[in-house]
């Protein structure tokens, strides 16, 4: 059984915390960037603001190309359940709305609003809610949503959804752990803006009403612990907890486990075990949104790595291309063979595909390592079953098994080994002596499984639609048959009423047809008997054979002639129709004339169609008053000509036999 | 005497179990063919007819009756693998006679060229094209299965099959795309 509230409070007060399984201790490298104050940057030449910078869906775009926007003006709406708006980082003009390289490992283009700053940096009207205690909860949650705040720790989950939760929360945990090496943005924020972070915590406490607030900071940040302790000392409910440095202690599940010994169930949320967690950066943003009315348009980004001559933390507006940040950190190309910039930390970050990639809400660090500092990974070798990965896994999974099954694409079994409980922290890949990029395999497997599920759902939908259509077609067919049956009955009845006249006629016709048929059959029968009875008389047989062969060919000729007649009739009819409809359009009639008069010139039909199209456009250009009508007519004519050409080409193959039959017919005659 | 008793006992037992089985067969009779349903669930439901049958369900029925499992290009290797597992047969490569595996595509109607003949609407197996006679038609992208069946009937050739636009959410962490997407895990030393 997990520890209850009192036990947890007691153990925290004596600093006897719990631990999570596994974990690694990579070199910290934080001192590179955490010694200098946060700097502000000049505006870049262009901002690229992606519509979707969080987990969920992007909102509807509210601006058009060419619009003038003010700093802090909403660019997209929060119209959908999981959507969070984005805001203009400065005042300027929207120059383009389209795809731009995304802050994602793939670098695939995503919908982005480009804003050219006018340099005035003029704020839009801000609506602070300074007396937030007097406002209903709903208003505050709405204000947080309108400010575009999503978790700044890394996952980017919309904050208003968490803040609007109605469950009983025992522990509100403020995450200032920042466990990944190199990154120091939260550290600097806590050192310099502890007071505002506390204001944000106050607002969250007002919303969530927890029993206790725990501010967790790793013990490698003593200055941050100090400043936040000072900021929180008036509040008895707030307690700053120093936790042992171990990666990935800042993971949500791991931090809950360290502080409370409670484990978040698979597919569960921290709220299921009475906890709620926010990043310190999120608290700062909430304070900004409620106390000042400022939406989230900038965040702290750590510029670090040996390729920066001046590593530091900067306030970067969201949408700033990283090339601008590189120059701010005095990035020296000489230390890298080819430009290599990692967005995020060295454990969970990714190499950006372009230096035009914008800073987004979850960008906490840009790491530009010198070539010697972080050598590119070696080729993977075979797994030696050392189980170091299993010992390092903070989620108590079996990374080896996951690796086998992910690599073999046996996703069912991988899921049985709880693939989706993997937090992709990279601890297993860090300890792997065979240099296997384990997390890469897991990410690929997860993406494949998600896509397979999506396809399954889509297939199911298609199946339902297909079956519904089949049903509808069947129903229509039955209805039609019923209608025909009724019509036939009606005809029969009326015929009966008319008396025998019509019936007699039909009977006579039938008799005629029968007689003809019989005669034909008899002739054939004669031939057959002749050939059968006189097989040896060669001369006679050949003569008879000619007759015999002529009889069926006669029939064939007749059928061919009938088909040809029917075709001609059909053509004439269609010609008449087209002439009726477009009597003034010479092109079409000309084209169909070609078709009807000389069926063998089908090859030239395409050319004729093109000519027709050209002709009609020529006429339209000369007829200026009726240009519009003619334009349409010309289009229609062109379409018809195109259609005919296509049809003819297709029919040509089939009809060649018939044409041959025709010619044969002529020669026979 | 003893042998007759044993024989009698066996006959009685056989009768009892026989009638029990007969009763169970009637009582728990399964309606329809569950195998066809299972096969149909594996097939991609594009309803493209490339297998030679008018839709996925007919092909599922044909497979249940012993047809080859490698005639479904939209499903590709993954579907063949699943079918092989279900049917207990050896998986074999896709039969080229029925087409090759291709990227996912959807139909797109060039709307200013569409003459509103409704032929594509009639051809679409999943009712994914909307429009009316002499009105412009358009494809509902989310419903289109990419079956290709609307392209041929179009008298003015205004339908294109366009590969689906890939977004980052559907990116599959391709190992082959060189440096792009490289994850620096294990670079700290």
Helix fraction of chain A by DSSP (H/I, runs of at least 4): 40-55%
Rg of Cα set of chain B: 26 Å
Quaternary structure state of the chains depicted: heterodimer
How much of the residues of chain B is beta strand, in percent?
5-15%
> Which residues of chain A sit in consecutive blocks of at least 5 with pLDDT less than 50?
530-551, 580-623
Helix and strand content put the structural class of chain B at mainly alpha
H/E element sequence of chain B: HHHHEHEEE
How large is the count of helical segments of chain A? Answer: 19
Task: Tally the beta strands of chain B.
Answer: 4
Averaged pLDDT of chain A: 83
| Biggest sheet, spatial arrangement of strands of chain A | 1-11-10-14-12-13
Q: Rough shape of chain A? A: elongated
Percent of residues of chain B in helical segments? Answer: 25-40%
The overall average pLDDT of chain B, rounded, is: 86
General description of the model:
- Chain A has 19 helices and 14 strands.
- Chain A is an alpha/beta fold and 669 residues long.
- Chain A has a domain of 103 residues.
- In chain A, the strands form three sheets. A six-stranded mixed β-sheet of chain A has the order 1-11-10-14-12-13, sandwiched between helices. Chain A has a four-stranded antiparallel β-sheet with strand order 2-5-4-3, with no helix packed on it.
- In chain A, strand 12 and strand 13 form a beta hairpin.
- In chain A, helix 15 runs antiparallel to helix 16, helix 17 runs antiparallel to helix 18 and helix 18 packs antiparallel against helix 19.
- Chain A is elongated and about 115 Å long.
- The model of chain B has no long low-confidence stretch (mean pLDDT 86).
- The longest helix of chain B is centred in the N-terminal third of the chain and has 26 residues.
- Classes of the chains: A alpha/beta (669), B mainly alpha (189).
